[in-house]
Every structure is written in structure tokens, then in C-alpha cells.
Amino acid sequence: MTLPDLISFNDYGGDWLRYEASLYAVFQSDILHHDLSFRGARVTARRNPEHERKWAGFWHLISEGRVEDDRLPDMRRCERLKWIRWIIENADSCQDIDVWENQRGSETSTLLWFREEYLVILSARSKNYLLKTAYCTVQGHKIRKLSKERDNANGTT
């Protein structure tokens, strides 16, 4: 089980349009056209609203910000885009990935946390999962909050 390499912006000579196109190709091959599944259920991404003919789920995986229309690219998210499929596919066999569920309102999500540094969130649907987001967990308060939630969910407090 080898973690995929980072996708470096520098490998594209600092050309954002080429980099973005490459990232979208990864999104398509790893998530949209791969038959990605978690525990036997298909993993899908949110399509609408599309922006620049790219799925909404893609933009959410490579950018950050509270207001959808004002999100900005996050290079750490971009670099780790290939990690998403790897984490989902290896969640039950890799001891570096913690898995638990949480409830936010009426929505049940499954959290896949790799080495307490990168989090993938899947939202349960009737017959599948929606890939909600994925991001680096670098802020101390966020790591403490997630650690506590994980430990409570897994009964290890």
C-alpha cells in the first residue's frame, strides 16, 4: 500500500490552467470513472452547480472557504487529490487511517482520517456515499476536536 505522490504545481511550471486541467483529469479518473466504492457502496461526487464545465465536487476538493462562490484554491488540497481514492480504498486495511461516523443534523457522515493530517468525509445516502470534501488538518484546535470526536465514536476515551 503505497500512498500516491503529491501533484506539484511546480511540475506544471506554475501554469494554473495546465495544473487545474491535470487535477480535473485525476478527479475524473479516480472518482467519476473508477467505480470508487467504500464498504461495498458506490462513492459519487456532487455535480451541480458546475463551474467552468467542472463538477461542483471537484471544486470543493481543491479549494477552501465558507462561501461557495468565494472559495479559493488550496495548494495542499490540490497536491493531495490522488490521496482521496487511496484513502477510501484502503480505509479498512491501513492502520494509519481512522474511520468513524458522526451526525450533523439529519446527515450521517463517515470520516476517514489519514495519520491525523488529511481528512476525507463521505456522506451516507440511501444506497451510496457522496464524497463531501477532503482537506488537510493542520490547525491544532481542529486536530484536537477531531481526535476527541474519533475517540468518543470508537469508545477509546
Q: Using DSSP, what is the number of strands?
A: 8
- Whole-angstrom Rg: 15 Å
Share of β-strand residues: 25-35%
Distance between the termini: 29 Å
Side by side, the strands of the main sheet go 1-2-8-7-6-5
Output the helix-strand order: HEEHEEHHEEEEH
In terms of per-residue confidence, which ranges show pLDDT below 50 for 5 or more consecutive residues? Answer: none
- Structural class by sheet pairing and helices: alpha+beta
Mean pLDDT: 92
Number of helices: 5
* Share of helix, binned: 25-40%
Main beta sheet strand tally, sense and closure:
6 strands, mixed
Broad shape: globular
Q: How would you portray this structure in words?
A:
With 157 residues, this protein is of the alpha+beta class. It is 34% helix and 27% strand. It is built from 5 helices and 8 strands, in the order H-E-E-H-E-E-H-H-E-E-E-E-H. Strand 3 and strand 4 form a beta hairpin. The mean pLDDT is 92.
What does the secondary structure layout of this molecule look like, with pairings?
Layout: H1 16-32, E1 37-38, E2 41-45, H2 56-62, E3 63-64, E4 72-73, H3 75-79, H4 81-90, E5 97-104, E6 107-114, E7 118-124, E8 128-136, H5 140-153
Parallel strand pairs: 2-8
Antiparallel strand pairs: 1-2, 3-4, 5-6, 6-7, 7-8
Helix pairs in contact: 1-4
